[in-house]
Amino acid sequence: MIDSNLLKLIPYTRAYKSHIVWNVIYNILYALFSTISMLSLLPMLEVLFSKTKSIPKEPIFSGIGGIMSYAKDLLYYNISELTKENGPQFALLLVVSLVIMTFLLKNFFNYLASYHIMHLKNGVLKDLRQTMYNKIIELPISYYSEKRKGDVMSRMLGDVGEVQNSFFSILELIVKEPLTILFALITMFAISVKLTVFVLIFIPISGLIISKIGKNLKAKSLLAQNEGGHLISIVEESLTGLKVVKSYNAESNFKGRFNDSVTRLLKLSNSIGNKNNLASPLSEFMGIATIAVLLWYGGNLVLVQKTLDGSAFIVYLTLAYNILTPAKSISKASYSVKNGLAAAERVFEVLEVENEITNKANAIKKSTFEDSISIKNINFRYEKEDVLKDFSLEIKKGQTVALVGQSGSGKSTIANLLTRFYDVNEGSITIDDISIKDMEMHSLRGLMGLVTQDSILFNDTIKSNISLGKIDATDEEIIEALKIANAYEFVKDLPLGIYTNIGDSGNKLSGGQKQRLSIARAVLKNPPIMILDEATSALDTESEKFVQVALENMMQNRTSIVIAHRLSTIQKADLIVVMKKGRIVEQGKHDELIAMNGSYNKLVTMQSFES
């Protein structure tokens, strides 16, 4: 029965079907000339032992049906003529040339078959990786809150490569090697039926033994690949959190986790490797055992019964041995395919994840923001417990609305829902009376600029990081955005200015500098709606004041949703919404809320006391 993951790979091969066709054609020719090259040894041996069949006159071609006997008689006629005219050495030269030519053609066709399989394998690998990366980028944020990033990386890089290495050995498995065996067996039957029956008894026995050894290989390969993903996750987490690991003297803890994983992987790899390594020598031993029986039985036919010619028996043995190589290849390929099936299972597990946050058919493209954002009676839960409960809020165009409250009150969740990183469980969010679920996501996110609490930067230049939302931005526009974000004062002093590489996650910069670059990125995008999720929390007091002025200037002509930890930064907001456990407990302007002497006043008093 064909594995379902094998069928799923077929669409990826369609773009390369010409390579498949040519590979099959050249493999057929290789298999044919593999047998002919062995058969060409027969006239050479007969010339050597002076047993050449004498053909007195040139044979006449009688039609396609008799082409084999015509070719054979023509060869022996030429050998007879050369021997008569020039002696046996010229006849030997002819048959040696014939042997060289057939072996040359055999290897030439093998090269051409390998050339086309290489293009097929590399092309499918590229397409699979592209599809996998596109899927990884498109999957919602919620998917990665449950998965280890290292495991996803392992599937993307290691497992896709394993699929490439393993699966395309199937073409060899069903065309090249079986045909090589088939052509050899046909020729062997023509030489001696009795001997070939002997061979056919031994082949199924050896196949059965080899398949028994390969049992459970797919299950162990799957375990090994999962463990490989876990190992990469440990490395990725260790590097990401290296400061924490070192500051808490947790090196031994992480070394222990890594060593445990490496040890488990070692045991699985050794178990798989032992079975893989056993396939080749075992198949060769079974083949040699067959050859040994043939030598004994065939030797009797030649020496005692004299029913088989010695030259024909030597050629027969070379043909029998010629079956061993493809038989070994088939056993190795079958093991390899089992590894590939396990890898494919992990690859397609990601590719088949249903993305719940997608564009509707005929989604609305919206490039402007005209009136208001309306959040109506929304409930949202990450798992079981509601994070937002019956939450409603109206944000008018041009307003600056601040969301404040203790950690876990649901402030950042509002930002995640507005950008459709997550979808609401109940209720609705609309922009200009259009549900964000009806809007094309690209255009929805085009309306928004997001500055997160964690300044996410990439290992690239300052220019590349800032121009993420506007790829064609000029240097002047980037410098202007940096000035607004109060970042140009340190960027201009860098060795290469905006062309300076900032390192992995921007680690060449301070926390405050990284956050100012994040703000500059949002400024350059120039969206009508700005979402600032604790945007100034990483800044020192002096930088915060500069950035706050820049943010206020930037927010004058746009709608802003400010999720604030430091309440001093949002006192000029048009509306301050105080949240507690997913609900709104107070809302109004700063002075109004202070006058209420409620939750907001308590938060302000606590922060004033802390500062």
Task: Please tell me about this protein's structure.
This protein has 22 helices and ten strands. It is an alpha/beta fold. It folds into two domains: 348 residues, Up-down Bundle (ABC transporter transmembrane region fold); 239 residues, P-loop containing nucleotide triphosphate hydrolases (Rossmann fold). α21 packs across α22. The longest helix is centred in the middle third of the chain and has 53 residues. The mean pLDDT is 79. Its main location: membrane.
And the CATH topology of the largest domain? ABC transporter transmembrane region fold
CATH class category label of the largest domain: Mainly Alpha
Mean of all residue-level pLDDT scores: 79
Indicate the structural class: alpha/beta
Major sheet: size, sense and barrel closure? 6 strands, mixed
Looking at the overall shape, the CATH architecture of the largest domain is Up-down Bundle
Quickly list its features.
alpha/beta; four-stranded antiparallel sheet; Rossmann fold; ABC transporter transmembrane region fold; single chain; 611 residues; six-stranded mixed sheet
In short:
Residues 373-606 form the ABC transporter domain. The chain is α/β, with parallel strands linked by helices and 611 residues long.
Describe how the helices and strands are arranged:
Blueprint (H helix, E strand, L loop, with lengths): L3 H10 L3 H23 L1 H8 L18 H20 L1 H51 L2 H6 L2 H19 L1 H23 L1 H21 L3 H24 L1 H6 L3 H53 L6 H42 L20 E10 L4 E11 L3 E6 L5 H8 L7 E6 L2 E2 L5 H6 L1 E4 L10 H5 L8 H10 L3 H4 L19 H15 L3 E5 L7 H15 L3 E5 L11 E6 L2 E6 L1 H7 L2 H12 L1
Parallel strand pairs: 3-8, 3-9, 6-7, 7-8
Antiparallel strand pairs: 1-2, 1-4, 4-5, 9-10
Helix pairs in contact: 2-5, 2-8, 2-13, 3-5, 3-13, 4-5, 5-7, 7-10, 7-13, 8-9, 8-13, 9-12, 10-12, 10-13, 12-13, 17-19, 21-22
Pfam family, one: ABC_membrane
Keywords: ATP-binding, Membrane, Nucleotide-binding, Transmembrane, Transmembrane helix
Protein name: ABC transporter ATP-binding protein/permease
